[in-house]
Design goal:
13-stranded mixed β-sheet, alpha+beta, binds the ligand C=C(O[C@@H]1C=C(C(=O)O)C=C[C@H]1O)C(=O)O
């Protein structure tokens, strides 16, 4: 049995400013920051890595009684035998990571949490609190960059392979992606991109996982699963159109998307899959019959929320691995689509499209699908985005759709525009 000591106390500070000050001393960094809901967790350092919560006992110190927060970043297709690029390959394969320091903002307030394998010394908490109080407001920087465009012919060939697998009856849908290399004018830090994503216009949950000098980050709109005791939620997100340049155009495009048979079909595969997983693991499953729209800064998606009560004994990690990858990121049927992706894509997706989240010591928490992301080091990065291919998909349209999705991670380089 591993014993964890966790000391949480309220802080009167902006947690992002606090993170910016504290992060300098830590090369292990973990962020799950929901921009709309107060579910914000920013971890520093690694106290211990665990394979599951089963053999863990935690001792609460401090006045709040809060459980420890652990982070979990999982690859899209962890068993894919083809090598990931060297940036992704440098990350360890760990299941749950307990940071030494966690800054928390939830519905009840803002907190500093210190985790340790021995009793937390109060002087350590006081020292971090003092640093936090001295934190200056963060500043944003614009990072000029150039993109090395990927080959259009390679994309056309990948889509043709997908369409022929659909025609042959091997899959009904396959999600194919593109990867682009970014070269910035000068080296940038994880803090620079994190601050630009949190303070910029991108909507969703900002993710960061840094290990050593290499970091993975982005801002995703897609919830995979959230668990709060018995209540669980998920989200079906598939089917895309442009955001439009003004409100009138946005609502016209949204209306078209809501009636577009190809996009509705792409979406329905995801709804069917999530309904099936929920029906197997939960009761009182509620999933509306018709999708709505999730409007984002650069694109809009067909969106169907899913909620249920989970069967006693089922865990968040268990639900995460049953749900992931959904047909929103792989295709239908999932196994066949994964095999096709392994054959068609020239790279291993690494954390792109993986499940990234946090879980607390009581087993509650959430996972997002790591979309609109990239992996970075020094002045370079690899950016990823994908789209669903079904019967009738046109390679050129899907190429443009991916360009629209890439704008979200590219907005991390822009420190000018305010939210
Ligand atoms: C694959 C991505 O997005 C997914 C694919 C979508 C689609 O095909 O319409 C929409 C939302 C996401 O589930 C991505 O952003 O890279």
């Amino acid at each position: 049995m591993t014993k964890i000591y966790t000391y949480t106390q309220p802080v009167d500070a902006d947690i992002v400013d606090a993170f910016c000050v504290l992060q300098k001393g830590f090369t292990d960094q973990f962020v799950f920051y929901d921009k709309t809901r107060k579910a914000r967790f920013m971890g520093l350092g690694r106290c211990i890595a665990l394979s599951s919560l089963r053999d863990v006992e935690y001792v609460v110190q401090g006045e709040t009684g809060k459980p420890p927060i652990l982070f979990s970043f999982n690859r899209f297709d962890a068993e894919n035998p083809s090598p990931a690029d060297e940036l992704f390959a440098s990350f360890p394969r760990l299941s749950l990571m307990l940071p030494e320091v966690v800054l928390i903002e939830d519905e009840t307030g803002k907190y500093l949490q210190i985790n340790s394998l021995g009793p937390v010394y109060a002087g350590r908490v006081a020292r971090f609190s003092r640093h936090i109080r001295e934190a200056k407001p963060r500043t944003r920087v614009t990072i000029p960059f150039e993109l090395e465009r990927d080959s259009r012919e390679a994309w056309d060939e990948a889509v043709a392979a997908g369409l022929s697998a659909i025609e042959g009856g091997r899959v009904d849908k396959v999600v194919l992606s593109r990867r682009q290399k970014l070269v910035a004018a000068h080296p940038f830090s994880s803090k620079d991109l994190l601050v630009n994503l949190i303070d910029g216009p991108a909507r969703g949950t900002v993710l960061l996982y840094r290990y050593g000098d290499v970091f993975f980050c982005g801002c995703t709109p897609e919830l995979l699963v959230r668990k709060n005791d018995a209540a669980v939620e998920s989200m079906c997100l598939a089917g895309t159109c442009a955001a439009g340049t003004d409100e009138a155009q946005r609502s016209r495009l949204a209306e078209e998307l809501l009636h577009d048979q190809k996009n509705l079909q792409e979406h329905a595969y995801v709804v069917d899959f999530i309904r099936e997983v929920f029906r197997r693991n939960c009761h009182d499953v509620e999933i509306p019959d018709h999708p709505g729209i999730l409007p984002l800064q650069h694109v809009q998606h067909l969106y169907t929320p899913a909620s249920a009560q989970v069967l006693e004994g089922k865990t968040l990690m268990g639900l995460m691995s049953e749900l992931h990858p959904t047909p929103a990121l792989s295709g239908t049927p999932v196994g066949e689509a994964l095999m096709l992706i392994r054959q068609v894509e020239a790279y291993n997706r690494g954390f792109f499209g993986g499940a990234a989240g946090y879980v607390d010591g009581d087993g509650n928490g959430e996972f997002a699908v790591a979309l609109r992301t990239g992996v970075f080091d020094g002045e370079i990065g690899w950016l990823y985005a994908g789209c669903g291919i079904v019967d009738g998909s046109v390679a050129a349209d899907e190429y443009d759709e991916i360009d629209m999705k890439l704008k979200t991670i590219l907005s991390a380089f822009d420190g000018e525009c305010d939210a």
